[in-house]
Amino acid sequence: MKYVYASRTGNVEALIGKLGIDAMRIDDGSESCDEDYILFTYTDGYGDIPMEVDTFLMANSMNLQGVVCSGSKDYGDAYCQAGDKISETYDVPCLYKMENDGTDEDVAAIKAVCNI
Questions:
Q1: Please, which residues bridge with residue 102 across strands?
Q2: What is the C-alpha separation between 98 and 2, in angstroms, rounded?
Q3: What are the CB-based long-range contacts (under 8 Å, 24+) for 12-20?
Q4: Are residues 92 and 61 in contact, defined by beta-carbon separation less than 8 angstroms?
Q5: At residue 86, does pLDDT exceed 90?
Q6: How far apart are CA 61 and CA 16, in angstroms?
Q7: Is the pLDDT of residue 76 over 90?
Q8: 3-state secondary structure the chain
Q9: How far apart are CA 92 and CA 64, in angstroms?
């Protein structure tokens, strides 16, 4: 399984480091992935899918197996909505939601759910 991520503020990138996985970073959405992958993303604005992730998924959704999403509980109902929207749009599971870069418990749970 391959891992792909997008990080604007550094939270998702920090999570990737905590997980100890080799992952491809989405910078502008022009990247490509031709094998099965799990997406790690942040939530933009008030529950939006980040623009670069949306662009990436338009060309690479066929191999998407699931999504892990970061967000801030300060946004209330919009918390991690990017994960929900990706899950619904591409018919894949939202595997996990965490606040910011995740706690040690989040890291352990993500490793378990993603078979890392």
A1: none
A2: 20
A3: 12/40, 12/41, 12/42, 12/70, 12/101, 14/101, 15/40, 15/70, 15/98, 15/101, 15/102, 15/106, 15/107, 15/110, 16/40, 18/101, 18/102, 18/107, 19/107, 19/110, 19/111, 19/116, 20/116
A4: no
A5: yes
A6: 21
A7: no
A8: CEEEECCCCCHHHHHHHHHCCCCEECCCCCCCCCCCEEEEEECECCCECCHHHHHHHHHHHHHEEEEEEEECHHHHHHCCHHHHHHHHHHCCCEEEEEECCCCHHHHHHHHHHCCC
A9: 7
Report d(CA 57, CA 92) in Å as an integer.
12
Sheet holding 2-5, edge to edge: 24-25, 2-5, 37-42, 64-71, 94-99
Q: What is the pLDDT of residue 90?
A: 98
Q: What is the pTM of this model?
A: 0.96
Matching residue, tokens 């352990």: 108
